[in-house]
Design brief:
14 strands; 19% strand; Archaeosine Trna-guanine Transglycosylase, Chain: A, domain 4; five-stranded mixed sheet; seven-stranded mixed sheet; single chain; 364 residues; Carbamate kinase; 2 domains; 11 helices; alpha/beta
Length: 364
């Protein structure tokens, strides 16, 4: 195993939940043992955990609801019990844990980003194992989008991790649904996670909010951050150490891209939902994709959605292919007036800017 790696180990709800819907303390104990092992070898580990809602359901002895607000309330109760389990089981191996609650929008603001990074560095310097959870109790739509996977990828970017290990109830990404095709086999490596592959990866599990599509989305984010990802079974013996060492057959590996993107652009591209679509002509696509230019009204041929300034929009070409995403500098109504017009054709008081290059990420 390479020396002094910084690892992010994320474990999903399905991997720490028993068949009767309770938090699986044996699974948490196994994770604690494996984290202790890689720390003893000189590596730093940050754990990202799901399971707060499950713990809340267990504590209050209620049926798991479907309403987001109800789920958030349960997470507020369950978070206390979940962290108590981590504290006790990690202490059995001489480790101290520290809770960090975070949400994707924390990565948008530069000051907040730097503060979060400093907090992680101080915790690691103190020998503490940070245990991260999405801030379910006050998040808006995060529970519905499986943000703990995305949170893990954003944290990997934040702390410049060497590897992101996504522990799930599957051995990795398979060629087919094993419940339908018994011949389904493990895909050992995926060079590039495409949107079509994410779409084909299946739906969320019954107890979690992610599923394999969410794991692949997180792997794509991590790859764009220059971080290698391994998707593997939480039940596999020594999975954390083997994934960190890059041993073959552990799970599905998504290698890191050569170039890193900033955390803010990562947030824009992958962690915030698009509220609309802006369609552009070929010249605008070339200017944005190859020239690094801002998107101006002259290159816009249409738009869809009722977005406002500051919200994210997908940018598509005339073949409806998404090639970029950004934060709109103008609302949909204003764009309806300015679309297709050069600067000298715009009505007085209107600006040609649609998406500034600093608020834009090219995806394809």
């Amino acid at each position: 195993m390479p020396a002094s790696q910084r690892l992010i180990a994320k474990i999903g709800t399905s991997s720490i939940t028993t068949s009767d819907g309770r938090v699986d303390l044996d699974a948490v104990a196994k994770l604690a043992s494996e984290v202790a092992g890689v720390r003893a070898a000189g590596h730093e580990v940050i754990v990202v955990t799901s399971g707060a809602i499950t713990a809340g359901v267990q504590r209050l002895e209620v049926e798991r609801p479907t309403e987001p607000e109800r789920l958030q309330a349960l997470s507020a109760v369950g978070q206390i019990d979940l962290m108590a389990s981590y504290r006790e089981l990690f202490a059995d191996h001489g480790m101290v844990v520290g809770q960090v609650l975070i949400a994707p929008h924390d990565f948008r603001d530069r000051d907040q980003y730097l503060h979060a990074r400093a907090t992680f560095h101080h915790l690691l310097d103190l020998g503490v194992v940070p245990v991260v959870n999405e801030n379910d109790a006050i998040a808006d739509d995060a529970i519905r989008y499986g943000d703990n996977d995305r949170i893990a990828a954003l944290v990997a970017n934040l702390v410049r991790a060497d590897a992101l290990i996504l522990l799930t109830d599957m051995p990795g990404v398979l060629t087919a649904d094993p419940n339908i095709d018994p011949e389904a086999s493990l895909i050992s490596e995926i060079q590039e996670v495409s949107p079509s592959l994410q779409a084909a990866a299946g739906s969320a599990s019954a107890v979690g909010s992610g599923g394999m599509a969410s794991k692949l989305a997180a792997a794509r984010m991590a790859s764009w951050s220059g971080v290698r990802t391994v998707i593997a079974s939480a039940r596999r013996p020594d999975v954390v150490a083997d994934a960190a060492a890059g041993r073959p057959g552990v799970g599905t590996t998504v290698p890191a891209r050569d170039a890193r993107v900033s955390a803010r652009k990562l947030w824009i591209g992958f962690a915030v939902a698009a509220r609309g679509t802006v369609t552009v002509d070929g010249g605008a696509r070339r200017a944005v994709s190859q020239g690094g230019k801002s998107l101006l009204a002259a290159g816009v041929v249409g738009s869809d959605g009722s977005f406002i300034a500051g919200e994210a929009v997908d940018i598509v070409d005339e073949h409806n292919e998404i090639f970029a995403k950004g934060l709109a500098a103008i609302d949909a109504e204003g764009l309806g007036v300015t679309a297709g017009l050069r600067s000298d054709q715009l009505p007085e008081g209107l600006h040609p800017l649609v998406v500034h290059r600093d608020d834009l990420i090219v995806l394809g």
